[in-house]
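Section 5.1 Outputs to date
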Amino acid sequence: LGSALVVGYMRRYAVIATLPLFTIFLSFIGWAWYSGSTENCGCFGSKLKHSPKEAFIFDAILVLALVITQLLSWQKNKEPKVKEVNQTWKLATVIVSIIVGLTVSTYASFSPRQSSDPVVRLQVTQPNPFQNIVVSGLNVDLQKGLQVVVLMDTGCDHCQASVPRFNEIFEQSTIFPPLTAICSNSALDVKDFQRKFTAKFPIGRISAEDFLKLLEKGDTPRLFLLQDGKVLKIWDKECPSNDELKGSLPK
């Protein structure tokens, strides 16, 4: 549809086909906005918060632009038609775009970078993701020993709700590795988070760039099981049970 719109091949039908796609997408975003289930979640870091309301407005503007384009197209069709040039090259462009798109998508789907296992993705892109990461407010070396590291955001509802579980793991230091958390929030935000949600585990701060590097395609809270800086296991959004965490520990 995109290539057809760009080169002008059957543009009117391409616009008509695009409108329902945007409408369906808007309906999902509109429901998320109405229900408020993800409002101000902050699950992509405090620097990248993007509410359903904002997404709805942006996409609604695009839909409006498509509608205006279609109206202008209908108006143009009422004018005397000029003899059209050969449309073969436009059709060829669309076909080539489809073939290239399918080929690239198929190839990428088999790449380790697209693996559903976050550990596999990190091994390809970042073999040692915690190397050279500067942590402030935390007297722990993430490159040494066996430990659980939580990547979180103080404004994330999922992180806030998981504090009791984090406390539980932290307090069972004789059974589980020591637990620490890192985030890209300010020192004041961390202090307020610890006070409001009674977080007993230590929380360090890293740069927003390092936060996004560790988060990659995942979600917060993201739990890393590390051994000497090497990632053994990753849990996104869900905290592991005691049995699952024990089973993931190196023998």
